[in-house]
Amino acid sequence: MDRMYRGLGFWTGIFAIMFYLGGMDKTALLFLGQTGFFVLLSYLRLSERMYMYVFGAYLSVFFAGFTYYTLFLMPPGGGL
Fold it and tell me: Residue 79, Cα to own-chain centre: how many angstroms?
């Protein structure tokens, strides 16, 4: 299970690099933070159940934040 979190860290790191190269600095920092979180978590040697609880909590926070952003902060019409 710890390798899954290292894989997540790798892919969020790739996304952070791509966002940075695309000029999206705030998003790159967000993904860089996620990369650090996933890689740090992968070396804690938690039980499989605890890894699942952490991932469930991560998804809950993500969905709440994404829903808030799309309902209240995103400009209507996709920013056109």
Answer: 23
Can you give the three-state secondary structure of 4-69, one letter per residue? Answer: HHHHHHHHHHHHHHHHHHCCCHHHHHHHHHHHHHHHHHHCCCCCHHHHHHHHHHHHHHHHHHHHHH
- Asked if residues 73 and 65 have their Cβ atoms less than 8 Å apart, the reply is no
pTM: 0.81
Which of 60, 7, 15, 1 shows the shortest CA–CA distance to 38? Answer: 7
Given this model, what pLDDT does residue 78 score?
66
